[in-house]
Amino acid sequence: MKEQLRQKAQKMLQENVVDPATTAIEGILGGVLDRQLDGIGLGGEPQK
């Protein structure tokens, strides 16, 4: 019973905290990297 509760709590933590936080961090870092690449002329869109 104790192990089942621990596993359920761990799964809930992973799904509700860790996964969304990881997605948010990846989005932030991706945006920063894109801006840096654009700034040095290596981005996907031409400089204006």
UniProtKB/TrEMBL annotation:
Organism: Prevotella dentalis (strain ATCC 49559 / DSM 3688 / JCM 13448 / NCTC 12043 / ES 2772)
Domain of life according to the entry: Bacteria
Protein name (record): Uncharacterized protein
